[in-house]
Amino acid sequence: MAPGSSAKAKGKAPMADIPPTKFMPVEERERLEEEKQNRKRSKQAMRAREVEDARKGILKDTTTKAASTPMSIKDEEPQPRSYFLTDGTETTKNPMFNIHQYLRAQPGGYGMVSMDKFKTDIGIDLKDPRNTDFLQGLSHNELIDVGESTLKRRHPLGVESERNMYMLFQYDIPNGHVKTKNGLSAMGVSEKELVGCFDGADMCIDEMIKDGAVEEIYTKNNASSRLERVFFPAVKGMAVSKDLRDLWSSIEVPGEAKLKEELLKRRLRTPEEYELRKKRDKEHRDKEAANREGEKQRAKAEKKEQRDRAKFNEMCQKRGWSRMVEK
To answer: Taking the complete model, does pTM exceed 0.70, yes or no?
Structure first.
């Protein structure tokens, strides 16, 4: 019987099955184990970089809901090779940078412009049959919303109405549909990303904060050294500790004038923002007053019509007329 088989028969492992580190000093074995772990971590980091590079390559030519930075114009899908200007000249110069700058300069940054005005300002007739391919390319651009006779800049987060705003904070952000530039799920969005997305957006976000659907915090912008607001969905069902409630109750809320002074002093607000808010509030009050006056006039007209109809019916009854006016 072979020595190896005899060793196995007695329950002992053969020499070839014994790991070489068994007879090494403890320090040497720890050093080898540490090197093994370092190599493993290096391979994991390399794979993570490869995945990140692949992800960036995939996202380079597509637009996602990014809560940090907008899509670069240079990363968009290629446009048709040629198109025609209003003077009939055919050119291959890429006009997308000028088009994006033009649409960004519209009121609020997302204002709608007619194709006729676009033709006058940019020099490209989108209704020209020769520019059909160019118009189709614009229609497939995820940063531009092309209508039948209008076009405008599309909001990166898809917020173009109050309903979109509510969906953003009640569905998109909680379900991880809004991503950061690193591909992670965003917890909130900054104020500058919602400015001008539609008329009344600032009033809508203020109402959501007032209703408790949205919460806000202040964060410092490293570029401008200015504090900016960040909005995120309110977390429901979390009880506040008694110490925090006592601390909140002990804080004295300053008056409106003092609060404005402090906000300006700490650069949380600017005079321009207060002027814009003042103008917005005045327009809102004027609109509400006009609506109330209109309701008042309509109610007055209805009451007068009812009185006249009642008088006419009464006259018909006195004269015995068979045809009466229904009440």
So the answer is: no
